[in-house]
Structures are given as structure tokens and as C-alpha cells.
């Protein structure tokens, strides 16, 4: 069967690795480095022509820092002989064309448009089911026979010496029979920075993926897979310099939990900054995004309460929900009608058996869904919230920083006051190139969470190095006011006895607006270069991300692919259906002249039939990078027969050249069309 | 498929059987009323294309399965469902008044939160406190071997940041596995002598995720009654059957193991996975497990052992390898050895070490591993460097244990507290000694009761009684007084009301080799004086 051809990865991987180890891959090299030069000359040409419409509304960028970095050679180690790549362009692509910018914003009153579910043709459905059927039937047959004839290879799933198997054969069926065949797509070790490009460590498998052997060579690939939405994954530049300073001052670890001596003044300042960023009264930071959900949700609700959770919510939310002891019900993904019906049912029925009224009801949704790219219908949820009086928890792991004209998440995108939401949660792993997570809300809620969340008493506090990255990147999006009162932030803190207080000026500041210098430690204000503290670079990143997201999403649709989600979402899933095509897609993208690494996801992470490729667009990608991805998809899509999208109102498909040429038109046109779609009811 | 060859006879019998049952089904089908309509529909959709029918059939089956499994469907079929009119519902919705999302802090809680020590600048043996504005001697931070201030580690972390940036920006499965993570995992495995190790990005979440990765519904867990919150939460997620044994009492453990076995024999149940879960040095009171005995029992009754070494890794043993080094037991005897890089190595994250099978299993099944971004590379390198330091400077541990001993000598003379912690434990818990000095509340000296505790309840038979609020308040006074006098200490913080059983209030001292013996003695003497004064 098709899947079994997966046994040939050895040969293809050998090819690509030989290429990168013996002679520098001229093609990829010239592409990835030539772009910076092309951009520089383009910028020179453009600077004389009239500014583009979007650029006019934003402060002009100071390019000096970006330009010098083109010639500056980074300090990455060059032992791999790929010295040509070591400009910062590999981390964050230079893109000077002001047309390739976009501001993502929702038009009030317009419906929230997501891609409609499109069914593939019958034969695709059929062959997908057949693949799984063959996989399941043969897999079970092999298990049945294998356990009898080759007990040695099945020992790990059979009881032995009085111990039950660690992994029952049924539980591990998909792991052994499907995932193992696709192992070349997962757990790919990498090195360098997870920026615009990434270096993968070449590997081969001599035994059908039972073992993977690292060859010691590396291949640099275009990275459209990391959650690096705003491109802050950088080892060079203003943020990295700030982190260096922060590490010199604070060290690596604070050696303890927040309530047991692991808090520093940096934590307090950072929490106030995060609160301000998201527009809430207060915030608490935890050292892991997953744990933010799993250790704080139980502090919000308990027995006698009800959690209503979107069916596609992240595992960390489920983890926390289960630990809370609250009753849980699920509603159809992003379906407001279903949510309302459920709310009516649960409120009127009360608690099971006793019919006593619920103590509280907490609705948990995500701002942006990581597998679907859908955006929550926040206006819809808030309308229900008014009527049904539930509390709302929004997990903004993927939307904070990445959506909204000011990067403040879904509330910003919809132009809604964030304080209408009770609990805002988010992570720093994605847009801010750091790690950890936060919960923001009212002051009294956050204080309660500080002592009731498990993290405060038990989990290590977040590392100062990571905190500095968070503060520097956030400040560069918020911009630092130059005329504010200048003074060491620590002095204002040490004067107050209640050390967990917010800075004085907090409530006077408008959201989203610039922050005063006193919101940052003095040393950080001094370390941040003007391009960052002016907010110019932050705005630049937001607009590039928005452009790239729309462009890739709409481009793929014009090429005839079936995509999912919201056009302004940086997560762009592309449906491939057949499980075997996923491996092929992954391999064909990786083996291209300019290698591209992609993420593929299959059952059980997705519904059985909608296996998909998931692109994560970044502000660090140039338009040419997106062109390259589109070209690659176009070619691979033809070979693998993936173009099954039905164009709206009988339009024709575009060729890839046409898409690349008309990119700006595509993005602008979409925004206008969306804005024009006022609700008619 | 490679080995899918089977005898021809079998195929023949199978085909024959299928054919017979099919015709039987057909006969019954035509007897049913309305079968004609279905037949016509099938014929028209069939259109001489067997593939089509087949596809439709499969879709039909999947639709049915999907409907049966739908998680979002309202459960109207429950017995207690009330039939209500839309108007009733509207009224009920109107009437429903939820409780507030959170209660504001009361005065005591607010005061305690405000008194949480905040360090100005870097932490270390003599940090400056924001609360007092002065430097203090640090007996609160978990910095056992002084790695938190190590300049070499800081330098290496900086270099890593300049090479890899800060965040890894991806879960481990999707381009979040950096070479430094692999190196760190290998370093841990080498250091402990196991086949492999796996890194999680937070210490607390490690064990909460390791447990549900292995223990499923129907499996049996036998656990110590005083395990830390992280373990409790992991067991809760696993939905396994839990049996409890008395805290650090291996006789009780053996009894429970026997009773579980008896139960299974009686019910003739199938062989399920069985686990013993306990800690090396207990977070709750600093007592230590008798590892050799534990391993003997585990082998005898064929259980797998999940051992949480968060507070012993990097703290006991000649080079800080933990309990296995202290007792000279090969780490490979422990099936899942969980430790913390944030506590023992002052970096971040946690790990689980064990055989290849154990490690690889978690790479697919550990929720906090699969669904979370990998640890920042600079922290992974800090952990690796921490191990290097431990390997090369055993004197750090000698110093740590000198300090522990010095502190214990002073504290042992303070009558008003009792110390449940083991003599080698780097964390020292102080309980308020109950008024009759021969107190029955001390776990190890608990009265020998005739009947053992009920294994299905986390509460022991003679549960110690203590007044949580009063003791917390007294200890908090001690902590604040000590901070005012330049000694940074902390109570062991708990999430009261959310743990399975309430831990006895205690002050938790953390010893460190970064302090000189003189400083340690000085600080502990200050504390002893305060204790005597406040706890009279
Ligand atoms: C919705 C959601 N919440 C939480 C997390 C966990 O965040 P982290 O990777 O920082 O642990 C993720 C990450 O994938 C996520 O998608």
C-alpha cells in the first residue's frame, strides 16, 4: 500500500544531506542570501517613489539598524560551512517594500468569516477511508500474527514476567502503525534560531523508523512551522541585547516558587507590563504556558461549578478542567447556536440529579485555534454572556501579539474592550519568542489566583532571561513614551510596602497606547534601541505578519487548495486528506532546492479524514518567502492531486505567477470585501 | 505487508462464513417492513458502481459512529431531565445568579501576600530584599549547591542565547527539539546511569504529566499518603484506581500491596499495570524513603516504581545524583525516575529518566511534553552545565551537608518545634510542637494503632489533628520577624482547600552550600531565638 513506500526515505534523505555536506547548496544559498540584496536595492528604488497607502498611516521606519545588520556577520558558529547564511537575514527577513503591509482589523457589525467546510471529491474521501481501512485491518492482522510468530518484536506490548505491558497494543495502535511510518515528519532535531530559517540536523533511518541516526550534517531550510508569529525568535538585535543585559543583572534562575522566595522585582514589573499590554488591571506570570492553564483553572472553579468548553480546546485546558473537579460540558466548535442551546439547557436543568443551580459557569474558548486557524466569534460569545451571566475565559495563546491592529489579541481585533472578558490567558511562547504564560483579569481575581493557583506555591518562577525577552518584545509593540516622567522604576516600587502594587500611572493610561518609561526597568529603557522603543519596529512586524497571513491564506485558495480558518490568522491549515500524502508533502517540501520545513498533522489530532499541513506564517518572512512557499505548494499540489477547492461564485483558479504578482491586490481586495459585508439582519 | 502470509484454508473458511452470514442477513432484511424503499434507494444510488455504494456505506457507518460519540449533543435522554417550556427556561435564566468568580482576599491573606519576599536583583546567598530594603541571609531559595549564582553557567547560558535566541517557538514534535535539548537529555541519562531521559519544560508539571502518560483507567496506583500536590494532580488525571499507604511506612506499603493482590485474585481480574508512586525526599516534610527496601518490595510484588526525586536530585549523594547514589542502588532499578532541573540544577524544567521504552513512550503520551513548547535552549544548557559542575566539584555537596548538620544541631535544641525531615535532607521543615512534648502528631512517632488505615482513603486512620489557621498565623509571625532581622525564610506554601489532605503548616528552610558555615549558624541562631520567643 501507499504508506509502505515510506520505507524509501533513506535514499532521499541521503541525497539532500550529501548535497549540504560536500558543496554548499548553491541554489538555496543564492536564494536565501540574494534576497537581502534584492531587498536593499528595491528599497533604494522605492524610497524615491510615493509612499504606499498603508505606510502613510504608520510612523516611518528607521532602517539604519536593519541595513547595517545586512552586512554584519552574526556570531553563529560557521563550522557547517554555510557561512553565506549567517547574516541576520536568516533570522528575520529584510523586506523593505511598504506595500507588503497590512493592518488586520474587524469591521464592527460584519460577520466573522471563516473558511467554510469544503468536502473533497468522492474519490478522495473514498481513498482516504480505504487507506485507513487497509491500515487498520492489516495492522491488526500483523499484530495478531506477529505476537504469535515474532514475540520478540512485540515484547513491549505483551505482558511479561508478571508485569502488564506498559503500552497496551490497542492504545498504541496508531502510534505503531501510523505515526511510526511518518516519523520522519516529527521530532526533527534542529539547531540555530527558530526564525525565518532553521537548520535541521540531517538524519536517516536504517530500520523503518525504529531508530533515527543523526548524520552530523545540517540543512538550512525556510521555516514556516515555528510559532514565531512576530519574528522575535532572534539571537541578534535589540531584544537579544536586552536579554543579555537582563541575564547579566539577574542570572538564569531565581531558585524557587513565586511565593517561596522566587520572586524578583523584575517579575513584578513584568506582570504590570503584561496587564497593561492586554488592557487588564493585573496579571500573573507562570513559567510554562501549559501549566498556566493546568494550574490556574482549578483555582477558578471547583465542585458545583460548570465549565463549558469548546470541543477543540487545547489539552492544557482539559488538564486544568479535569483537575478542578468542576462539571464539564462541551459545545460545537465556535458554534454560537449550539452554545446558546447548551447554556439554556444547563442553566434551566441545574446540577445533575439535584437540579440545584450552578454556583458559577465558566465558558472557556481559545482566541485562535491552533489546528484550525479559526478565530473565536467573540462578539457572539459576549452577546450570550450578557444574557446568560457566565464568566468568560479566553486562551489567547495563539492570538496575543498576532492579531489585532495593535497586536493585543482578539479583543483588539474586534475592537472590544478587553475588560468585558473576565479572564484573559495567553502564552509567551508564540508571538514573543520567549516561554511561559500569563493570566490577566481584575486585581482581586489575580490576587486570589496568586495564592490559590498551584504555580504560586509549587512551580518554579519564570527565568529572568525569559522575562527580559517578554518585556523587551512587548515594549517594542506598545512603544515607550519619551516625554513621560523619567525615573528608576525600582525606586517607585521600593517606596511602597505592598510590593505587588501596580505602578501609579497605570489607570491613567489609555489602552492600547504607549507606556511611560517608568513601566520598564531603567536599564531596559536604556538598552532598547530607538527603533524598538519608538514602536516603529513593533508596528512593522504586526503589519508584515498580517500581510503574510492574508497572502498565504488567500494565495493558497486562489491556487485551488482547501484551507481552513480565518484569513487573518497566521495559522494556515491546508487539507491533504490522505495520510500517505502527508509524508509525501513533507518530504517533497524538504527536498526542494530551497528546502521548506512544514508541520503535518493527522488523526488522532484531527478528525480522521482531514489530515492537514499546518503553516505558521511569521513576520520574519519576506513576501518572496511566501511566494516560494506558494510555488512549492503549487508544484507539490499538482503532483499529489491536492487542489480540490471550489472557487466562490464560479471564479477561475489563478496560476502561481498570477498570485505572486497580484499579492497586494489580493490582500487589499479581501479586506475591502470583508469590510463591505455588513450584517443584513 | 511483510509477514502477512497465512494458510489458504483459513481464508477459505472465512470467506465461506462471510458468504453464509450475508445471505442470512439478506433473508431477514427482506422480511422487514419498508425494506423495499431502502432497496430502491440503494439501487438508484448504486448506479452500477460498487465503489460508490461502498463509499456511501462507509460514510454511513462513520456518521453513525460520529453521532454516537458526539460530545456536544445535549443529554436529554438522562432520566432526571426536566421538560421545560421556553418561557420557563427564560425565567430560570433570568433568575439565576452566579457566585462571584473569585472572593477578594481577606485581611490575613492580603497581609501574607504582601509579606512574600521579593528579591531586588539577582538571587543568591545574600540577596537584597525589596520588603526590607536590606540584604538578608537566604534560607528560603532552593539553591542547594549554589548553582544559581554560578558565573560559568551564566556565561554558557548567554552564549546559548546568542546562538539560539530565547524561546524555542515550537512543541518538541514540531521543530522544537534543539540539539541542546538532546544533549541535556543525554547528560542527565549519563549522570544517573539510565538508558535515556526526557526533558519537560517545568518541574511541577513533569510528574503531573508522567503519571497520566503511563497510568490509565483500570490501572492500580499505590501511593504514599503524603505525596506532594503535583503527584496528587497527576494521579487525578490518570483516573487509575488509587490505594494509599501510610506516610513513609513500608510495612503499611507491603500490607496494601498484599491486599491489592488478594483483591485481584478474588475478582479474577486481568493483569493490569501497577505502580508505586512516592517521593525520594518528601516535599511536604523532608522525610526520606528507604529506597533499597522499596525496590525490594516493588520487585517482589511486580510493581513499577515512579519515584519523584525533585528534592533529592542535586542535593544528596556524593555528587548529587540523588537517592540512588546515597543508597548505592543503580538508577536503572527505578522504572521512572523523575527529577527537577529547576530545583537541583537551578536551571528550569524537569526530567524523567528510565529505559528507552519509558522515555520514548512519553514523547508521544506525556501531555505536558507533547502539547507544550520545549524549554528555552538557554535553560537546557544551564542544566547541562549544572551537571558538569556537580560531577567535577563534589566538595559542593560536602559543604551543603556540613551546613545541614550545623543547622540541625542548633534546631534540635529548640523545644518548641519538631523536625520531621531526614538528617540528610537539604530542606528542613519545622512544625510547631504540640503542647504535650511527647506529641502524637509527629508522623514517625504516631501511635501504633491496632487496625491499619483504609487503603482507599488518603486520610490515615489516626489522622493528626492540628489547627491550621493558628499554626499558620504563628509561623507567619516567625517568618516576618526573621525577615526583619535579616534572615530570609518562608513557610511551606500550600493551596489550602485544593489538596487531597491538608499538610501540616511548617516553615521550610532550604540549606545551601553557597553560605559559609558561620553564616548558616548565624542565621539559624537568629531563627532559633525567634522561635523560642514566638512559640512559647
Ligand atoms: C491554546 C493553547 N494554550 C496553551 C498552550 C501551551 O503553551 P506552551 O507551549 O507555552 O506551554 C498552547 C500551546 O501549544 C496552546 O495552543
UniProtKB/TrEMBL annotation, chain A:
Which enzyme class, named as a word? transferase
- The chain's coiled-coil residues are none
Family annotation (Pfam families) = Aminotran_1_2
Q: Give the enzyme's EC designation.
A: 2.3.1.50
Q: Residue ranges of the Aminotransferase class I/classII large domain?
A: 222-471, 516-632
The protein's superkingdom reads Eukaryota
InterPro entries of this UniProt entry?
Aminotrans_II_pyridoxalP_BS, Aminotransferase_I/II_large, AON_synthase_class-II, PyrdxlP-dep_Trfase, PyrdxlP-dep_Trfase_major, PyrdxlP-dep_Trfase_small
Cellular component terms (Gene Ontology):
membrane; serine palmitoyltransferase complex
GO MF annotations in UniProt: pyridoxal phosphate binding; serine C-palmitoyltransferase activity
Provide the catalytic activity annotation: L-serine + hexadecanoyl-CoA + H(+) = 3-oxosphinganine + CO2 + CoA
Composition skew (Low complexity), residue ranges: 7-30
- Note whether Chloroplast occurs among the keywords: no
* Membrane-spanning segments: 122-141
Names of the cofactor(s): pyridoxal 5'-phosphate
Keyword annotations of the record: Membrane, Pyridoxal phosphate, Transferase, Transmembrane, Transmembrane helix
- Which parts of this chain are annotated as the region Disordered? 1-30
Q: For this chain's UniProt record, which GO biological process terms are given?
A: ceramide biosynthetic process; sphingosine biosynthetic process
Family (UniProt): Belongs to the class-II pyridoxal-phosphate-dependent aminotransferase family.
* Record-given protein name: serine C-palmitoyltransferase
Q: Whose protein is this, by species?
A: Gymnopus androsaceus JB14
Q: What is the lineage of its organism?
A: Eukaryota, Fungi, Dikarya, Basidiomycota, Agaricomycotina
Automatic annotation (TrEMBL), chain B:
Its cofactor is:
pyridoxal 5'-phosphate
The keyword Acyltransferase is assigned to this record: yes
Q: To which pathway does this protein belong? A: Sphingolipid metabolism; Lipid metabolism; sphingolipid metabolism
The record's Gene Ontology biological-process terms are: ceramide biosynthetic process; sphingosine biosynthetic process
Query: EC number(s) in its UniProt entry?
Result: 2.3.1.50
Where do the segments described as Disordered lie?
A: 442-463
- A Pfam family cross-referenced in the UniProt record is Aminotran_1_2
**Which residues are in the Aminotransferase class I/classII large domain?**
136-422
- What do the Gene Ontology cellular component annotations say? endoplasmic reticulum; membrane
Keyword Acyltransferase listed? The answer is yes
* Alphabetized UniProt keyword annotations: Acyltransferase, Lipid metabolism, Pyridoxal phosphate, Sphingolipid metabolism, Transferase
Q: Which GO terms describe its molecular function?
A: pyridoxal phosphate binding; serine C-palmitoyltransferase activity
Similarity section: Belongs to the class-II pyridoxal-phosphate-dependent aminotransferase family.
Protein name in UniProt:
serine C-palmitoyltransferase
Amino acid at each position: 500500500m501507499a504508506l509502505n513506500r515510506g520505507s524509501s526515505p533513506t535514499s532521499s534523505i541521503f541525497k539532500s544531506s550529501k548535497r549540504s555536506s560536500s558543496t554548499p547548496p548553491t541554489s538555496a544559498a543564492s536564494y536565501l542570501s540574494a534576497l537581502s540584496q534584492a531587498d536593499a536595492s528595491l528599497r533604494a528604488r522605492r524610497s524615491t517613489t510615493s509612499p504606499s497607502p498603508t505606510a502613510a498611516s504608520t510612523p516611518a521606519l528607521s532602517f539604519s539598524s536593519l541595513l547595517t545588520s545586512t552586512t554584519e556577520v552574526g556570531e553563529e558558529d560557521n563550522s557547517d560551512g554555510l557561512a553565506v547564511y549567517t547574516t541576520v537575514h536568516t533570522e528575520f527577513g529584510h523586506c523593505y517594500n511598504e506595500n507588503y503591509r497590512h493592518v488586520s482589523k474587524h469591521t464592527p457589525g460584519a460577520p466573522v468569516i471563516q473558511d467554510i467546510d469544503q468536502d473533497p471529491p468522492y474519490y478522495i474521501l473514498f481513498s482516504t477511508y480505504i487507506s485507513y481501512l487497509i491500515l487498520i485491518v492489516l495492522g491488526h492482522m500483523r499484530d495478531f500474527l506477529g505476537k504469535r510468530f515474532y514475540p520478540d518484536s512485540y515484547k513491549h506490548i505483551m505482558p511479561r514476567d508478571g508485569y502488564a505491558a506498559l503500552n497496551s497494543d490497542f492504545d498504541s495502535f496508531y502510534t505503531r502503525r501510523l505515526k511510526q511510518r511518518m516519523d520522519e515528519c516529527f521530532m526533527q532535531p534542529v539547531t540555530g534560531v527558530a526564525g525565518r530559517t532553521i537548520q535541521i540536523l540531517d538524519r536517516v533511518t536504517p530500520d523503518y523508523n525504529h531508530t533515527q541516526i543523526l548524520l552530523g550534517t545540517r540543512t538550512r531550510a525556510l521555516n514556516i512551522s515555528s510559532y514565531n508569529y512576530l519574528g522575535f525568535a532572534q539571537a541578534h538585535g535589540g531584544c537579544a541585547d536586552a536579554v543579555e543585559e537582563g541575564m547579566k543583572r539577574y542570572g538564569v534562575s531565581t531558585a524557587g516558587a513565586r511565593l517561596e522566595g522566587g520572586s524578583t522585582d523584575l517579575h513584578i514589573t513584568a506582570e504590570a507590563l503584561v496587564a497593561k499590554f492586554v488592557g487588564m488591571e493585573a496579571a500573573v506570570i507562570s513559567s510554562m504556558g501549559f501549566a498556566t492553564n493546568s494550574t490556574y483553572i482549578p483555582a477558578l472553579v471547583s465542585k458545583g461549578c460548570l465549565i463549558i468548553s469548546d470541543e477543540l480546546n487545547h489539552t492544557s485546558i482539559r488538564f486544568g478542567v479535569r483537575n478542578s473537579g468542576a462539571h464539564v460540558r462541551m459545545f460545537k466548535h465556535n458554534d454560537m447556536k449550539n452554545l446558546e442551546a447548551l447554556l439554556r439547557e444547563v442553566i434551566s436543568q441545574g446540577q445533575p440529579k439535584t437540579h440545584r443551580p450552578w454556583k458559577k459557569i465558566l465558558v472557556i474558548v481559545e482566541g485562535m485555534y491552533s489546528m484550525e486557524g479559526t478565530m473565536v466569534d467573540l462578539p457572539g460569545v459576549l452577546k450570550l454572556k450578557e444574557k446568560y451571566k457566565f464568566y468568560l475565559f479566553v486562551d489567547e495563546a495563539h492570538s496575543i501579539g498576532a492579531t489585532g491592529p495593535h497586536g493585543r489579541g482578539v479583543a483588539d481585533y474586534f475592537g472590544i474592550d478587553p475588560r468585558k472578558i473576565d479572564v484573559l490567558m495567553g502564552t509567551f511562547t508564540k508571538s514573543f519568542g520567549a516561554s511561559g504564560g500569563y493570566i490577566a483579569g481584575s486585581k482581586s481575581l489575580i490576587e486570589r489566583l496568586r495564592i490559590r493557583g498551584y504555580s504560586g506555591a509549587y512551580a518554579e518562577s519564570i527565568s529572568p532571561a525569559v522575562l527580559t525577552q517578554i518585556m523587551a518584545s512587548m515594549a517594542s509593540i506598545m512603544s515607550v513614551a519619551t516625554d513621560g516622567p523619567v525615573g528608576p522604576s525600582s525606586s517607585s516600587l521600593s517606596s511602597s510596602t505592598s510590593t505587588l502594587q501596580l505602578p501609579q500611572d497605570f489607570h491613567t493610561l489609555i489602552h492600547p497606547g504607549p507606556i511611560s518609561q517608568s513601566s520598564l526597568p531603567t536599564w531596559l529603557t536604556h538598552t532598547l534601541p530607538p527603533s524598538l522603543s519608538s514602536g516603529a519596529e513593533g508596528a512593522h512586524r504586526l503589519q508584515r505578519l498580517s500581510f503574510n497571513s492574508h497572502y498565504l491564506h488567500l494565495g493558497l485558495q486562489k491556487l485551488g487548495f482547501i484551507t481552513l480558518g480565518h484569513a487573518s490568522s497566521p495559522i494556515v491549515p491546508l487539507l491533504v486528506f490522505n495520510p500517505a500524502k502527508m509524508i509525501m508533502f513533507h518530504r517533497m517540501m524538504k527536498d526542494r532546492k530551497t528546502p521548506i520545513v512544514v508541520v503535518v498533522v493527522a488523526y488522532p489530532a484531527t478528525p480522521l479524514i482531514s489530515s492537514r499541513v499546518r503553516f505558521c506564517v511569521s513576520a520574519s518572512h519576506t513576501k518572496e518567502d511566501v511566494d516560494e512557499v506558494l510555488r512549492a505548494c503549487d508544484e507539490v499540489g499538482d503532483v499529489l492531486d491536492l487542489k480540490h477547492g471550489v472557487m466562490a461564485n464560479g471564479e477561475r483558479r489563478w496560476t502561481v505567477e498570477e498570485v505572486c504578482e497580484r499579492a497586494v491586490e489580493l490582500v487589499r481586495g479581501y479586506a475591502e470585501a470583508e469590510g463591505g459585508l455588513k450584517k443584513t439582519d | 505487508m511483510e509477514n502477512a502470509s497465512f494458510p489458504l484454508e483459513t481464508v477459505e473458511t472465512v470467506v465461506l462464513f462471510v458468504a453464509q452470514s450475508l445471505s442470512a442477513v439478506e433473508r431477514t432484511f427482506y422480511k422487514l417492513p419498508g425494506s423495499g424503499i431502502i432497496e430502491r434507494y440503494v439501487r438508484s444510488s448504486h448506479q452500477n458502481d460498487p465503489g460508490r455504494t461502498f463509499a456511501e456505506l462507509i460514510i454511513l457507518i462513520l456518521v453513525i459512529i460520529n453521532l454516537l460519540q458526539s460530545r456536544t449533543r445535549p443529554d436529554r435522554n438522562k432520566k432526571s431531565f426536566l421538560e421545560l417550556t421556553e418561557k420557563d427556561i427564560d425565567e430560570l435564566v433570568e433568575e439565576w445568579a452566579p457566585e462571584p468568580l473569585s472572593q477578594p482576599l481577606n485581611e490575613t491573606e492580603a497581609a501574607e501576600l504582601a509579606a512574600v519576599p521579593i528579591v531586588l536583583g539577582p538571587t543568591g546567598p545574600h540577596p537584597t530584599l525589596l520588603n526590607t530594603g536590606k540584604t538578608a541571609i537566604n534560607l528560603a531559595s532552593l539553591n542547594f549547591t549554589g548553582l544559581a549564582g554560578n558565573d560559568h553557567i551564566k556565561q554558557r547560558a548567554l552564549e546559548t542565547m546568542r546562538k539560539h535566541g530565547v524561546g524555542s517557538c515550537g512543541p518538541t514534535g514540531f521543530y522544537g527539539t534543539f540539539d541542546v535539548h538532546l544533549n541535556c537529555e543525554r547528560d542527565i541519562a549519563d549522570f544517573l546511569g539510565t538508558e535515556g531521559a526526557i526533558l519537560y519544560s517545568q518541574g511541577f508539571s513533569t510528574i503531573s504529566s508522567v503519571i497520566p502518560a503511563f497510568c490509565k483507567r483500570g490501572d492500580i496506583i499505590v501511593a504514599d499518603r503524603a505525596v506532594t500536590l503535583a503527584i496528587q494532580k497527576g494521579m487525578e488525571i490518570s483516573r487509575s484506581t488509587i490505594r494509599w499507604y501510610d506516610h513513609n511506612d513500608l510495612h503499611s506499603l507491603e500490607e496494601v500491596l498484599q491486599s491489592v493482590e488478594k483483591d485481584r485474585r478474588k475478582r479474577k481480574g486481568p493483569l493490569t499495570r501497577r505502580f508505586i508512586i512516592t517521593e525520594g525526599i518528601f516535599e511536604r516534610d523532608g522525610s526520606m524513603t528507604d529506597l533499597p527496601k522499596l525496590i525490594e518490595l516493588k520487585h517482589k510484588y511486580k510493581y513499577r516504581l515512579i519515584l519523584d526525586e525533585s528534592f533529592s536530585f542535586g542535593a544528596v549523594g556524593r555528587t548529587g545524583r540523588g537517592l540512588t547514589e546515597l543508597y548505592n542502588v543503580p538508577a536503572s532499578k527505578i522504572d521512572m525516575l523523575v527529577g527537577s532541573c529547576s530545583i537541583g540544577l537551578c536551571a528550569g524544567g524537569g526530567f524523567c529518566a528510565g529505559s528507552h521504552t519509558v522515555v520514548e513512550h512519553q514523547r508521544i503520551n506525556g501531555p505536558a511534553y507533547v502539547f507544550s513548547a520545549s524549554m528555552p535552549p538557554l535553560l537546557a544548557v544551564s542544566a547541562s552545565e549544572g551537571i558538569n559542575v556537580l560531577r567535577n566539584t563534589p566538595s559542593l555537596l560536602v559543604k551543603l551537608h556540613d551546613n545541614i548538620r550545623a543547622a540541625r544541631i542548633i534546631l534540635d535544641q529548640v523545644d518548641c518545634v519538631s523536625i520531621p525531615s531526614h538528617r540528610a535532607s537539604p530542606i528542613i521543615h519545622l512544625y510547631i510542637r504540640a503542647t504535650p512534648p511527647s506529641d502524637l502528631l509527629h508522623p514517625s512517632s504516631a501511635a501504633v494503632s491496632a487496625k491499619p488505615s483504609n487503603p482507599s482513603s488518603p486520610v490515615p486512620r489516626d489522622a493528626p489533628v492540628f489547627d491550621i489557621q493558628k499554626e499558620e498565623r504563628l509561623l507567619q509571625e516567625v517568618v516576618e520577624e526573621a525577615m526583619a532581622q535579616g534572615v530570609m525564610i518562608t513557610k511551606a506554601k500550600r493551596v489550602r482547600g485544593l489538596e487531597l489532605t491538608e499538610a501540616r503548616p511548617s516553615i521550610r528552610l532550604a540549606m545551601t552550600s553557597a553560605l559559609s558555615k558561620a553564616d548558616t549558624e548565624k542565621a539559624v541562631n537568629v531563627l532559633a531565638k525567634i522561635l523560642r520567643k514566638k512559640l512559647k
